[in-house]
Specification:
This protein has 232 residues and is an all-alpha fold. It has one domain: Up-down Bundle (Rhomboid-like fold), CATH 1.20.1540.10. It has eight helices and no strands.
Length: 232
């Protein structure tokens, strides 16, 4: 630009942040390594707070449906879930702004995790194995974020939208293949509860519409391209 004196002047640099993920999404990401660091300090050990599918019929530690998502099997497990939450959490959090929206986001995240664990448990009612991890919750955020790709005005894409269906089929195909093969980098010897991922994903995919309407208030939603957002 030019000043009044006729001398050229440089424009002031923009103060726009490169990364503007909502604080509540970053809170979820940061909670994973912090909780894992303190995991060994839990009374009775982490097994007390893990989810055991057989407890659904035998009784016992039903709260494991919720508490298991706050535990992890190792640093690789933590890193994978934290990366997923960082990639797919921000667009979902922006859909529910403000303090009430932040509460709604956290409840949605936990509901996805419970749905994932419950679905897995119903398929393995005779299993005494212990399941831990936030993967079901993170896949729920993924399913929700897929319906927000490129939308304007706060209305997620229809479940029948061709992009939603195509991406969902690809993701769930890779998820099932990874689980059935039993291979995940850095997690050798650990079984993958891919069914929990699928149930969490489906819950997030279906429920993001009505859930966001409950917690969005009157604030609209616009999701411009952002380094924190997934891209098609």
């Amino acid at each position: 630009m030019w000043g009044l004196s006729g001398e050229p002047q440089l424009a002031e640099p923009s103060s726009e942040r490169i990364f503007n993920a909502p604080a509540v999404a970053l809170l979820v990401v940061a909670s994973m390594p912090l909780l894992y660091i303190g995991q060994d300090l839990l009374p009775y050990g982490e097994a007390r707070f893990a989810f055991r599918p057989a407890s659904l019929v035998e009784g016992g530690w039903w709260p494991g449906l919720l508490t298991a998502m706050f535990l992890h099997a190792g640093w690789t497990h933590v890193a994978m879930n934290a990366a997923g939450a960082l990639a797919f959490g921000p667009p979902v959090a922006r859909l529910m702004p403000g303090p009430v929206g932040g509460i709604g986001f956290l409840l949605f995240y936990m509901a996805c995790g419970v749905a994932g664990a419950l679905g897995y448990g119903l398929l393995h009612l005779d299993s005494q194995g212990l399941a831990v991890g936030a993967s079901g919750a993170v896949f729920g955020l993924t399913g929700a974020a897929i319906r927000l790709l490129g939308v304007r005005g706060g209305r997620p894409r229809a479940l029948t939208d061709h992009r939603v269906l195509r991406i969902s089929l690809i993701l769930m195909g890779v998820n099932a293949a990874t689980g059935l093969i039993g291979f995940a980098p850095g997690m050798e010897g650990v079984s993958i509860a891919w069914e929990a991922h699928a149930f969490g994903y489906l819950f997030g995919l279906v429920m993001i519409g009505p859930w966001s309407r409950m917690f969005r208030g009157r604030t609209g939603f616009d999701s411009p391209p952002d380094p924190g957002d997934p891209v098609p």
